[in-house]
Amino acid sequence: QVQLVESGGGLVQPGGSLRLSCAASGRTVSINTVGWFRQAAGKEREFVAAIGWDSGTIMSGDSVKGRFTISRDNAKDMVYLQMNNLKPEDTAVYYCASLRVGMWSDAADYHSWGQGTQVTVSS
Questions:
Q1: Are 77 and 10 in contact, with CB atoms under 8 Å apart?
Q2: Strand stretches in 8-121, DSSP E
Q3: Rg of the chain (C-alpha set)
Q4: Mean pLDDT confidence for 76-93
Q5: What mean pLDDT value characterizes the chain?
Q6: What is the mean pLDDT of residues 91-107?
């Protein structure tokens, strides 16, 4: 089994930056892909970005391309989401998740989830 813990959320002004971290533990050898998702109040869970654990291949959602960057450090079992030029519409709970096979943007394909970290963008 894989356990995931997110950190780094908080309150930031529009145009500001935050870096989220996702710490993986347990059976990390089973991880093929780690993804970031977000869920704003009253809305569906939305794909943000994903990265291949070994390959480093990256997918990004259309709403964050050019502003958010996903990366990983396999030696530390960590995945990061660097968020720049934040906008009020980025306000959401951000989750990291892992899947064992393939690389997809559908939350239903992911098997292990963290508890989430709140990001609030407001002036």
A1: no
A2: 10-12, 18-26, 33-39, 46-52, 58-60, 68-73, 78-83, 92-99, 112-113, 117-121
A3: 13
A4: 97
A5: 96
A6: 95
